[in-house]
Amino acid sequence: MSASRRTKLGTMPLLPLLLNAALGFKLCPNSCLCYESSDLVDCRSRELLRVPPSVPHDTWLLDLSGNKLTVVRTRSFVGLWSLRILLMSNNSIQTLQPQSLSSLQFLERLDLSCNRLRRIPQDFSQGLSSLLELRLDHNLLQHLDSTSLGEFENLKKLDLSYNRIRTMDVRAFNSLSRLSLLSLEANRLNELKDGVLSRQQSLEVLLLGHNNISVIETEALAPLRRLTLLGLQGNQLQHIRFKTLLELQTTSTHLLMSLNPWTCDCELQRVFSKIHHVRHLHVEDYRDIVCHAPRHQAGSSLASLDSQLCVAETASVLVITITVMLAVIGALVKAEHNRKNKQAVSDTESQRLEK
Fold first, then answer.
1. Does the predicted model carry a pTM greater than 0.85?
2. Entry's Gene3D superfamilies (predicted)?
3. Rounded CA gap, 123 and 339, in Å?
4. Distance (Å, rounded) from C-alpha 272 to C-alpha 270?
5. Which residues does residue 41 pair with via DSSP β-bridges, in sequence order?
6. Rounded to whole angstroms, how far apart are CA atoms 277 and 291?
């Protein structure tokens, strides 16, 4: 074989690489699709067991949803400086190793929904100060502590719905001062404590529906000056204080309060009557509020009973008042009768002595 022939054969494997470089092509993971025009890497539903290597450094969107990831390892995304959107929903992720996401300093949207996370690591928010939207819904989370969400100062939307959250540290949301939407729907919360939302002055939508909430402390909603929607439907509320809702000093707030085991008495009727007279509060599902107790009111809508509840109570109070008055009058009459008898006996005794 001639020297020129060998030279040509030796250079042939280099031609595709040179051609790729000349045309500006980039390496792409074998199991993924890379779209040059949009810097999008599509790795959806490829049965991947780990984050693939060789993702182009200038990738803007990486979609890893619908795979079989169980662990996100440390330094899995190192070098992806341009990444803005990372989608990892519908995997089986149980563990986020330390600093697994900390290199994504410009990430704006992170979707970890529909996984098997039981806890949020303490360093979870480290390096993610640009994040605007975080989805952690449909996981197995049970508790929110005060460190896991600590560096999300720019976060605007947080979805924690459909987990198993029972408790939250009072300072769990302290760093989230720019949050506009918080969803905690379909968890296992029992109460909403004063101070939990103390830094959420920008919050516009708060979804707490379908928990086990039976108590909302008086000042719990007070910081929410921009709230437009409050979802409390499907909880365990039997009563609610008017003052608790009056603390919502907003321009206009729409309330969802049906599907609770309300005790329909005069006190509850007065609370809703007062709410109706507050210009900025609107109970959107008032006609769907159904009584759970007392037994003879069970199944009736609060709207259909309306002022009857207080009429019955007023009648009861009136009967009691009349009964008491009659008892007092009877006691006075008896006392007067006894006084007169004593006076008559005294007069008779005086007359006898004079004789």
1. no
2. Ribonuclease Inhibitor
3. 86
4. 6
5. 34, 62
6. 22
